[in-house]
Amino acid sequence: MRAGAYLLPRDDLERAIALARRADEAGYESLWVTHGLGRDAFLVLAAYAQATRRTGLGTGVVPIYPRHPVAMAQEAATLAEISGGRFRLGIGVSHRPSMAEALGLDMGQPLDVMREYVAVVRAALGGRARFEGRYYRVAWDAAFRPPSPPPPLYLAGLSVPMLELAGELADGVVLWLCAPAYVRDVAGPALARGAQPQALAPASGDHRRGGRLHHRHRGDDRADHGADFPDVWPGEGRIPGDRGGRLARDLCRKGARLPRFRRHAG
Fewer CB in a 10 Å sphere around the end CB: N or C, the chain? Predict the structure, then answer.
């Protein structure tokens, strides 16, 4: 079993960096940060990258609307290099209170925006983006050598359509406050449908990827539980004790009943 943690700095970045170092020494598979109301996720992970050697680093997640997809790809490529290939890019549409009401941003049709956004990000991570869509028109070439392979791309998802889109386009999905039954009965099957070329009608130029599923579940530690299947990541902001270990083992047994996904070539 692999374990990871959400490690949010809040008011004490120095202490969070020290905890990241301890987590790396303890053998944690990955460390994750959110972005919305806190510090800049990419800068925090850059600091964690300097304090760690083996642990994977991920955004879970960064909202797409405040950042152009090319800018997102530039930051992801840079962090992938800084971390020695350990970075995973998690992105999401967030929600209207945070984007439309707090920042005054037009969210359009979130599913359509996300589909275009992923296409541009993937192209930019390859060094050259040419895209004409409803929301984005891009003609961009990198002046540096992008990372190869590019960092894995995960989408935030709760609704069935977004989960299916994650299965279709992304390398995985990040859930939020989901009961194990929802993961088993709703999220898992939706992700599997999206990952099957015959299940959904593809748009021209889509990238199809099978999915890893990463699940943040409301528990004692506001834990993150992932399944590949299954991976379990307990804890947020501290290294969990035996209680987190018991929670991880229990969820791992439940996760073992979830389906497995295979990657499909784009």
Answer: C
